[in-house]
Amino acid sequence: MRFYNTLTKQIEEFKSIKPNYVGFYTCGPTVYHYAHIGNMRNYIGHDILEKTLEYLGYEVKRVMNITDVGHLSGDSDIGEDKMVQSAIKENKSVMEIAKFYTDAFFEDFKKLNCDMPDIIEPATNLIDFYIEIISDLLDKKIAYKSGGNIYFDISKASNYYALTNHNQNELLVGVRDDVELDKNKKNPGDFVLWFTKSKFKDQELKWDSPFGVGYPGWHMECSGISIKYLGEYLDIHGGGVDNIFPHHTNEIAQSEAYLGHKWCNYWFHNEFLNDESGKMSKSKGKILTVSTLESLGYNPLAFRFMCLNSHYRKQLVFSFSNLDSSVNQYNKLINKINSIKDDGILLEDLFDLYNKKFIDYISDDLNTANAISLIYDILKDDKVNNHTKLELIKNFDKVLSLNLITQTTKNENHEYIMKKIEERNEAKKNKNFELADKIRDDLKNDGIILLDTREGTTYKIEG
Ligand code: AMP
Ligand code: ZN
For ligand 1, is residue 273 a contact (CB within 6 Å)? Predict the structure, then answer.
């Protein structure tokens, strides 16, 4: 199994710390708003990695946080707490906001057939542990108190810029606003571990601590939750590419300073889903969710199919016309699989041959697009009998999770097609040829080809 490790900047053979076991941490959503389909692309990528490891025989323990405190509107300690801003806007308490958007997130997560992580932990549940870590960093003089807040001194980190491709000066451009805003920092790149004095205007959630009443900085939760549930040595930690800096960079700095040794071996990052105007972002306001797609008549799994047909490390541009063509491809594939009658015995040699190809593709930095095209090869291969075809597809779907066997498209239903044929006949009789053509084209888009014969109209499923 090989995938791209952001830490070493190369595709690497994966070696777990313990045999056949993987500790895998995923940065969860900030629950101040709905998660958009860009966020969900990131979680589909994580789901594929987890299921690939499981397909290869690893037991995976997956942990995810829910950010319900401390994530400010700017990632570098700029602005106000996003949760607080949302609570004020919606006239609710922070906890009400957190519950509402957490539930909405997991509803969409499940619609995409993403497996629930073994442990899901809201940031606000482990405050005592963050205080313990921060106290330790203060004792070690790696953290300092300034202007009431506690900061991490990045000059004390052994290799602070290890994860990012940027150099220090470039990064400082990114945090320049911060430099102007926060005069308490010794180095412009230092980051907050605990807020007390600043960022306190309307802060609703705050806790007592040896450093004063306050709340943790954003990065602390992922170090704390990960170490608590996955131990001092972590196999894989992942997120979107925007998490590389500052979030994951700061997580590494504080975790390794606390633990006194290297913490995580593999860093896994997913590229963005963009719209025409660039990166999809919650803060842009109007956002597209999986549930919205569903209410527009789209099967969420057609969106998953669209994501899996592109590589997770390439940016993907979302448009409804792209989604429409994914829907067509997905429906055609489903119709084709549905038309296979399960007969024959398992042809083990062919099963092993194609299963090995599948493993080669997904183990090659998660090449899901090739894995999907392999299904088309199998469907076309006359040497493979129906039973073996279905068994292969059933197995591949443990990773792809596209309901390849169980899904039915509405148009695969015989009665539905016959009804449409009648409607078309009626339209032709009324000389409404535009409608008649539309009915034929709509069915064609779903992979159903109408055949006008002397005996009347029949149909075939496109192969
Ligand atoms: P947030 O809820 O903003 O903390 O984001 C949740 C996850 O979604 C993070 O890991 C981000 O890196 C990721 N993410 C945010 N925007 C996008 C996007 N447009 N495409 C893909 N992933 C994204
Ligand atoms: Zn995180």
Answer: yes
